[in-house]
Amino acid sequence: MNTSFERVELTKVEWLTPPCLVKKLGEFDLDPCSPINAPFLHAKTNYTIEDNGLNKQWFGRVYCNPPYGKQMNLWLEKLKLHGNGITLIFARTETKCFFENVWNSADALLFVKGRIRFYHVSGIQGGTSGAPSVFVAYGKENALALKNSGIDGRYLEL
Description:
By secondary structure, the chain is α/β, with parallel strands linked by helices. It has helices spanning 8-11, 19-23, 72-82, 96-103, 140-147; strands at 30-31, 45-46, 62-64, 85-90, 108-112, 133-138, 153-157.
């Protein structure tokens, strides 16, 4: 079975965060990017693609692992405006999306040491991702959650 995350046609845009990482960040009220048949859940309330989380109202503390594709900017912009949550994205710090939604808006970053082994929607953990990852915190409490998470990496307060 090929579990590489390099090939978009195999993975679509849904790469699921390992639950052990999300648990280290505390409890979340909403995950607006949950898969339809999720093998595990990261929040009390979960929106799927059928719910269209971009068009729904967000509330409370949000965990967002956005779809990796052309619309990722929209998810980051919505979380930035919401101001209370953590997202996990590739650490492509030079991109327009990162400059518009992270560098000037986030409260903290946690660059993950090594490469994350994301899960497929089948619940099977795949190989390492094709790029380094970073957790981005919006809101001081979320910055503190990153700092105290124990996730191996480098914390940067913005």
